[in-house]
């Protein structure tokens, strides 16, 4: 009886590990949009290097396709998140307000910004890098292969 329980426990543990590996290896698919962020002072001669990140900018209307879904090639010195967003928006003619090297938040994207829904909730733009919440864009440095997602979310007010 004891051996049977040990075998069953071992099998269960192997299944959990296998599922964890499968989920962890799941490659997020992005669309075919492309953009390029270029800093005028970028130079490989000075040790600068190019990276490519995956970027998905969701649509405030969840029934429609993302505003941008693809890759951004970054030929910039610091590879900051706001640079990738600016390049993606420029490539698709998407208006963006409030984003720069000092601001952490997107004020308005594609004409949509913060909304107090009047029912104890609000809606605004939220950012994730590699599946983890990012507090903003102003100081977020990206690395080659990162998945950067921007989505319009509704949340409960906690203030």
Structure report:
The longest helix is centred in the N-terminal third of the chain and has 23 residues, at 2-24. The protein is built from two helices and ten strands. It is globular, with a radius of gyration of 20 Å. By secondary structure, the chain is an alpha+beta fold. The strands form two sheets. Strands 1, 2, 3, 7, 8, 9 and 10 form a seven-stranded mixed beta sheet that branches. β8 and β9 (132-134) form a beta hairpin. Helices cover 22% and strands 32% of the residues. The N and C termini lie far apart (56 Å). The model is unreliable at 8-26 (pLDDT under 50).
Which CATH-level-2 architecture?
A: Beta Complex
Summed up, the domain count is: 1
The CATH class label is Mainly Beta
Low-confidence stretches: 8-26
* Number of beta strands: 10
End-to-end CA span: 56 Å
- Topology-level CATH name: Ferric Hydroxamate Uptake Protein, Chain A, domain 1
Bulk shape: globular
Largest sheet: 7 strands, mixed
């Amino acid at each position: 009886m004891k051996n049977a329980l040990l075998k069953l426990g071992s099998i269960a543990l192997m299944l959990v590990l296998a599922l964890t590996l499968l989920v962890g290896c799941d490659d997020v698919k992005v669309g075919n949009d492309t953009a390029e962020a270029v800093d005028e002072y970028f130079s490989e001669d000075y040790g600068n290097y190019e990276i490519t990140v995956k970027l998905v900018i969701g649509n405030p209307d969840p029934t429609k396709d993302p505003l941008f879904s693809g890759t951004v090639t970054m030929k910039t010195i610091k590879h900051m998140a706001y640079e990738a967003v600016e390049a993606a928006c420029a490539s698709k003619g998407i208006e963006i307000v409030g984003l720069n090297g000092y601001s952490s938040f997107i004020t308005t994207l594609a004409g949509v910004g913060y909304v107090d829904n009047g029912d104890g909730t609000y809606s605004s733009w939220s950012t994730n890098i590699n599946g983890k919440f990012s507090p903003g864009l102003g100081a977020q440095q990206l690395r080659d292969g990162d998945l950067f997602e921007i989505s319009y979310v509704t949340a409960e007010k906690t203030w």
